[in-house]
Amino acid sequence: MGLFLIACEKVIDVNLDTSEPRLVIDASIDWIKNTSGNRQKIILSTTTGYYNSDFPSVSGASIVITNSANTAFNFVENPGTGEYICNNFLPVIGESYTLAISLNGEIYKSTETLIGAPEIEGNIVQNNNGGISGDEIEITYYYQDNITEKNYYIFSNKNPHIAFPQYKVKDDENNNGGLNPVYYSDKDLAAGDVVNIKLIAVSKRYYDYFRKILNASGSDSSPFSTTPTSVNGNISNSTNSANAPLGYFRLSEVDTKDYTIQ
């Protein structure tokens, strides 16, 4: 007599409490080296349900950034997209900027300084026996840290096999003023693949904020591909403090290079 086991699967829907949508402000001003930096973008959206991968865009806001000379840079929405564009922004390292967003009778504000970044050195090294297990293609690139400053960095690495950049964070506590290496490997890398590398200089506060975002996402591959967690940013609601937004106002110089796997 034979014994037959039949596996049964049942889909279980979990009812999760849904809180009121909160405004999400992506105000990352990136000044790519050797460009004017005039064109910048700010994105407004809201939080959404756990099972929803789309974030509703927010239209109808008035957005302006002013510098210390009170020069105003207006961000105008591409209609219906929640993307607000400025074509005449003037980036200056060390300059202080204030963000002001007016939306539905409430004002959101933040002030930050634009931080300069070192260059990615040209001597990128490839190792075909790299990675933790020694069977991945690994590249090593370098940057010269400024010994006169306390510095904080985010490294973005993007290859054709992944949907989002992979991130690392680092400060200069253990190698202030040194020529610092950054290691990157991926199991799917192959000859001919182009890896886009970005070095982003950030403040200590943003460094701490971004580390919390990475930890909350459970991965360094895409911290913004899931519903944003309640990690406090640096933007306040000056009209209604109980309705604080998510997101951050950051201004960074960025160096970027493309490396083709050999």
Question: What would your notes on this structure say?
Answer:
By secondary structure, this protein is mainly beta. It has a domain at 23-116 and 228-254: Immunoglobulin-like (Sandwich), CATH 2.60.40. It has one helix and 15 strands. The strands form two sheets. The chain has a twelve-stranded mixed β-sheet with strand order 11-10-13-15-1-2-5-4-3-6-7-14, covered by helices on one side. Strands 8-9-12 form a three-stranded antiparallel β-sheet, with no helix packed on it. It is globular and about 60 Å long.
Major beta-sheet overview: 12 strands, mixed
What spatial order of strands do you see in the largest sheet?
11-10-13-15-1-2-5-4-3-6-7-14
| Helix-and-strand structural type | mainly beta
- N- and C-termini, Cα separation: 61 Å
Oligomer: single chain
Order of helices and strands: EEEEEEEEEEEEEHEE
The global form is globular
Helix content: under 10%
Please render the helix and strand layout as text.
Elements: E1 23-32, E2 40-46, E3 62-67, E4 72-78, E5 83-86, E6 96-103, E7 106-113, E8 125-130, E9 136-144, E10 152-158, E11 166-171, E12 179-186, E13 194-202, H1 204-217, E14 236-237, E15 246-260
Parallel strand pairs: 1-15
Antiparallel strand pairs: 1-2, 2-5, 3-4, 3-6, 4-5, 6-7, 7-14, 8-9, 9-12, 10-11, 10-13, 13-15
